[in-house]
Amino acid sequence: MIASPQLQWISPQEYLEWEPMQQLRHEYIDGEVFAMTGGTKPHNRIALNLVTALDSHLAQSSCEVYISDVKVQVATANSYYYPDVVVTCDPRDRESNSIIQHPCLIVEVLSPSTEAYDRGGKFARYRQLETLQEYILIDSEQIGVDCFRRNEQGLWVLYPYATEDTITLASVGLSIPVAALYRQVKFETNKAES
Predict the structure, then answer these.
(1) Any idea what the CATH number is for the domain that residue 97 is in?
(2) Range of the domain at 64
(3) N or C: which end of the chain has fewer CB within 10 A?
């Protein structure tokens, strides 16, 4: 979802003033601004399935779930991102209508163009969020879910899930079958010929 840089270096304040006036969403990474590209139907359906389950599960709690139009600020990395799904249970996040600073759960639905960055540089920045307990990566081209969970020692442990598994989101106390995340998802069987 990250495209080429759109502007020369700008400050975080300039980004926060400029970005709401744009037609496209833009992520900010240490002075550089990147346009966000559109997703696919599988990408959208997977995010929708998860958000629906989370919203229902969290309805009676103080936690809030948001989809791809709410920014997460990683202040220590001088970055702002638009994750596919984010959950916060921190009352400090109620002070802003557009930015989450204290998430407990972040989910990215992977696409071929973003997978390496979502697993690498973006995850390295997200790990700097002290409140983040889980980082979930969901494949949009085949069934597969990777859950990275921070353990008691502060280390990130990988829990991979397959079709027949039930994923446990410990940060919010939700268990959901992997198959439910992929409900109504149709994978592309034949790639278009060039």
Answers:
(1) 3.90.1570.10
(2) 39-181
(3) C
